Sequence to fold (260 residues):
Amino acid sequence: MIKINPIAAPGILQKKGHQWRDALCAARQDYYQQLADFEAGNIAQKPVHPSADKKKYAHKQVKTYLQRMFGQKCAYCESLVTAVAYQHVEHFRPQSIYPYLAYEWYNLLLACEVCNSGHKGNQFPLMDASQPEENRSNPCARDGNDANALVNPCFDNPEDFFDFDDEWLLCRNNNLRAQYTRDVCGLNRDDLRDARRMVLDPITAVAEYLLLLVKNRQQNADRIRNLATRIQKYTESSSPYSAMVSSKLRSLGINLAELL
Ligand SMILES: [Zn+2]
Fold:
């Protein structure tokens, strides 16, 4: 996970977001009234919990703006997504529990399907270890002011929470929020660690060679600069697993800025 700098909301959300939100809140209110009727035996058909409209929160303009912030990567696991699948517009606070935030720009991220649907789903632990539920009597009462345990790369600096030991994500000082995020999003899952390893191994080999060249710096100046430039690309925010690569370089004592 890397720090993401938020940009202003897309016009479509600025213009329509509150109207869409109010309609969803009203639909949820109706739903709970019907559910009460159903539970009392007054109606035969069990109502369906109305979801936020994907065509609206994942509107083309919303996705374009999110891609400006997140590039082609998942907000949580830093995998490149578009090569094999589509990026999901992810609700940081799940819309099933927080309809008030279903079309709220600051609540939207881009994530891969595995982090979004396969792992996080509707989980949203709070700092008191509770899992929030939708407020039945007033579905829009839950806003973004409760104490989220999950790390949000738009508001938190992931470097304060995470480090790496090779392809393994570590939680700094056993930080509780880091642990929740790692576990809820599955950030040490097997296939993800395999994918990180595929990036890490060749970079480690090149970095170790670079260290050998640095021992005779004057003689190897051009090659050092060339290799450092190539490695630097893997630390850029658009590159997959850039936080892991930067951590590896730190652990090897390589400061690219010094070598370029
Ligand atoms: Zn992911």
The two ends are 25 Å apart (CA to CA).
